[in-house]
Design goal:
Radius of gyration: 16 Å
CATH class of the largest domain: Alpha Beta
CATH topology of the largest domain: Rossmann fold
Helix content: 25-40%
InterPro entries: 5'(3')-deoxyribonucleotidase (IPR010708), HAD-like_sf (IPR036412), HAD_sf (IPR023214)
Distance between the termini: 18 Å
CATH superfamily of the largest domain: HAD superfamily/HAD-like
CATH architecture of the largest domain: 3-Layer(aba) Sandwich
Protein name: 5'(3')-deoxyribonucleotidase
Mean pLDDT: 95
Low-confidence stretches: none
Number of strands: 6
Strand content: 15-25%
Number of helices: 6
Structural class: alpha/beta
Largest sheet: 6 strands, parallel
Strand order of the largest sheet: 3-2-1-4-5-6
Shape: globular
GO molecular function: 5'-nucleotidase activity
Pfam families: NT5C (PF06941)
Number of domains: 2
Family: Belongs to the 5'(3')-deoxyribonucleotidase family.
Amino acid sequence: MARIAIDMDNVMADLTSHMIHLYEQKHGVRVSMESLNGHPDGGGFPIEGETHAFIREAGFFRDLPVMPDSQEVIKALMEKHEVFIVSAATEFPLSLKEKIDWLEEHFPYISWKNIVLCGSKTIVDADYMIDDHDKNLRYFKGERLLFTAPHNIYLTDYKRVNSWKEVAEYFQLTPAMV
């Protein structure tokens, strides 16, 4: 049984599409996902820095859409492996309760004992880490899986997974499990 650490934002929760939606609501401008490619997380919008204000607002993390297939694949992973949800959440104190509430709603089968809200992920000890940020994967000692997001599209240092279906294939989950 392997231990798998899974990030939340832009891995389980679609933070980027939520930012696109909020930006369009506020400014009436629809930004394409592709136009954000290669920009730092939250960057690439016509008004730079605007999205950084969004993540500091109450309710931002509570309303994130769920990444397609993540619920089924994570549940299947939990049947074969020890799974921990690991989020560098303390930078945004409002996110702590919101992330727990979000997980309870969308992933009710994940125990509170398997949720780690932290600052730096350098302390994480697992066999695998699924994350969208180089800063979290760089020092990780286990197998590193980079979950595709616009800000990491040009990184080539890690094994890349583009979807939760690819995560299921990587861990050899059968269709009956997913």
